[in-house]
Automatic annotation (TrEMBL):
Transmembrane segments: none annotated. This is Diguanylate cyclase. PROSITE patterns: RENAL_DIPEPTIDASE_2 (PS51365). It comes from Virgibacillus necropolis. Pfam families: Peptidase_M19.
């Protein structure tokens, strides 16, 4: 069954490798590298229809270097993911999904945290031109646009952040709520035409700051947003280093009980996580999840979770 995955950190891992901070061998071969959970070989084995690639800049990177780090990751996306692998097709507009052929995999650029452009909105517009189709205002920290989920003061979206959401709306770009504070989430609900939770779970099932509570979940669904469950065990079983597919299904079951049957998707966080769901440790194992879901849900519902819900709810130009 085809899969759309709305979050991975392969570009960061590839950048770290190229900079000699991950492994000593330098540039990773995107097609086959065993160091990449979401390499092309694994995407094919898992029957991925599309993979979203996050641009992520760690808060420890000096402000003067953040834009360069973002450009490096984008360059790796173009040179190592797209140019060397003709079956990877760059999705630069939502209608491009409709042109994908059976043997092709869509590749979507996203931005995880506004640190990359600081307060320079011309840089954000440049990211749109390069193909970024989803923007999360922050990671777990605070920045000029918003407070992240782990920022102690728990602030919301700033005036600059509101300008970013406005630009996202104008450009049919998603605003990602996955790393926001509760206050920031509700600010986005008032502002964003195209909200998405690219990699979050249900807080009622696992009380982790990165998950969404029931009221947030229902607001996402009411605003035509999709919530993509994440495979990181601490977000599935609080403070545990492992989880089972059955544990992950508890989140899907709960989200469905809140009206999410047509709004649930997958956002693995592969290449950004260090512990894994049993039998779901990289993209090649995606069909294990599908097979388990088919035991409890209809084929039509599972197709919705796997790819159709995203396609049905994506922005329309």
């Amino acid at each position: 069954m085809k899969i759309i995955d709305t979050h991975c950190d392969a570009l960061l891992k590839m950048q770290l490798a190229k900079r000699g901070k991950f492994i000593k061998s330098g540039t990773l071969d995107y097609k086959t590298s065993k160091h990449l959970d979401n390499n092309l070989t694994n995407l094919k084995a898992g029957q991925l229809m599309a993979q979203f690639f996050a641009i992520f800049i760690h808060p420890n990177v000096p402000a003067s270097e953040k834009w360069q780090h973002a450009l490096e990751q984008i360059d790796l996306f173009y040179t190592e993911v797209l140019e060397k692998n003709p079956e990877m097709k760059h999705i630069k507009s939502w209608k491009d999904f409709d042109a994908l052929q059976e043997n092709e995999i869509g590749a979507v650029l996203t931005l995880e945290g506004a640190d990359a452009f600081g307060n320079d909105l011309s840089k954000l517009r440049h990211l749109y031109r390069l193909g970024v189709l989803s923007v999360g205002l922050t990671w777990n920290n605070a920045n000029l646009c918003a407070d992240g989920a782990e920022e102690p003061r728990g602030g919301g979206v700033t005036l600059l952040g509101k300008e970013v959401v406005k630009l996202n709306n104008e450009n049919y770009v998603y605003t990602d709520v996955s790393h926001l504070t509760v206050k920031g989430f509700w600010d986005i609900m008032e502002l964003a035409k195209y909200p998405i939770a690219s990699h979050s779970n249900a807080r009622t099932v696992c009380d982790h700051v990165r998950n969404l509570d029931d009221e947030q979940v229902k607001a996402m669904f009411a605003n035509n947003g999709t919530l993509h469950v994440v495979f990181n065990p601490p977000f599935i079983n609080y403070e545990k280093d492992n989880a089972t597919i059955a544990d992950l299904l508890k989140h899907i079951d709960h989200l469905c009980s809140l009206g999410g049957v047509k709004h649930i998707g997958f956002g693995s966080d592969f290449d950004g996580i260090t512990s894994f769901v049993t039998d779901l440790s990289d993209a090649a194992h995606y069909q294990n999840l599908i097979n388990e879901l088919l035991k409890y849900y209809s084929e039509d519902q599972v197709k919705g979770f796997a790819y159709r819900n995203f396609l049905d709810n994506r922005p329309r130009l």
